[in-house]
Amino acid sequence: MAAEKNFLSSISHPSAQPSSTASGQPLHCVAPARVNLLGEHTDYTGGLVLPMAIPFETHATISPRTDNFYSFTSELFPDAITLTREDRSPARSLWADYPIGVLRQLQQLGIEPPAFDFHLSGNVPFAAGLSSSASVEVASAMAMLAFTGTSLSIEEIALLSQRAENEYVHSPCGIMDQFVITAAKAGHALLLNTRDLTYEHLPMNKGALADTQIVVCNSMVKHSVATGEYRVRRRELEEGQTILRTTFPGVRDLGDATLDQLNQCQHQMSHEAFIRCRHVVTENARVRSARESMFSGDPVSLGQLMLQAHVSYRDDFAASCEEVDFLVDTAITLPGCFGARLTGGGFGGCTVNLVERSHCNAFAAALKAAYQQQFKISAEIYLCDAVDGAWLRNASLLNRRATQERA
């Protein structure tokens, strides 16, 4: 994975372009959404994840002001926020907390942007498990860095964006979303080791896998138990992880643990802690197996791993729901579907489906019709190919802008 890390880190990022702000013209940056193929609830226990960036976008536009204020507006939300440059107030439980959180992190690094107008737009579905919040954070970071003529690495941008959500918004997310939204590469998923941030781009365009497409189905439900249950699951994982570390001093976290080690500790932990940890340990193993499937261009084995992941998410992690289970169970009966699973935090949201490209439209129509008949809910379905992350997309965009302004 180190070779892939060096590939993107070696690109000269053109965020320091004096002409972008000296002209007084707006500077525009974009970040995609993401969907996770495998590796759910592994990213805060030192494990492996396998997400990809998808073609929904957050657009951040930033323009210079002549006074001493920062303003934040959005096409998506009615609330507008204006702050003095000296303001260090806490979060307001508004959409603007996400870009303001990024600004706070930059300020903590000693990066003080000049006064600006910040405007947000985009089409990433909210509360669907496609990481609209991380998309906002990364787009905001790219825009503010470009505006100040400052360059940070992929890892620094992702971590800064994560800290904005953890420390300012007070949402205890892992690193997966911000990292893939920053570092993704078109035609590939991204295998990320969340402990050391080494990564590798795995081909979605090899062998028979090239003839497939990812179909995301938004169940349009998000059960109210989610927030409280996430905290419970995390405590249960931490309980099991602590026991594993005590029993096996070489185990740093669940990312190191084997199923045999976990089984040896079963009698020392609660049943709930054991099965939550079993989900994470087996999920890491599924991500490793998926790497082999993808380099082999084998959608059959990859689809089976996705289905196994859903069973584990449903039974061991207990984070699925009736609507999502119906979508998965129905999907795997439809022609062209190799595998399906719940993706995202759980208790609703989206399923991710690996489908033969020639069957995608019929698959989407049949799944939508079955769900409508069963639950009287109109699902939203998105056909997705893997796209570039914000690093590559904005490097190209800013290079073009600089060339045009020099002409």
Polypeptide structure, described:
This protein has 407 residues and is an alpha+beta fold. It has 2 domains: 220 residues, Ribosomal Protein S5, domain 2 (2-Layer Sandwich), CATH 3.30.230; 178 residues, 2-Layer Sandwich (Alpha-Beta Plaits).
Based on the model shown, name its key terms.
407 residues; alpha+beta; Ribosomal Protein S5, domain 2; Alpha-Beta Plaits; 2 domains; 7-stranded mixed beta sheet; 4-stranded antiparallel beta sheet; 13 helices; 11 strands
In short:
It is built from 13 helices and eleven strands.
Unreliable segments (pLDDT under 50, ≥5 consecutive)?
1-22
Could you tell me the radius of gyration in angstroms? 21 Å
Characterize the biggest β-sheet: 7 strands, mixed
Counted beta strands: 11
| CATH fold node name of the largest domain | Ribosomal Protein S5, domain 2
Alpha-beta content class: alpha+beta
Give the proportion of residues in helices: 40-55%
* CATH class (first level) name of the largest domain: Alpha Beta
Number of domains: 2
N-to-C series of helices and strands: HHEEEEHEHHHEEEHHHHHEEHEH
Shape: globular
Number of helices: 13
Give the mean pLDDT: 91
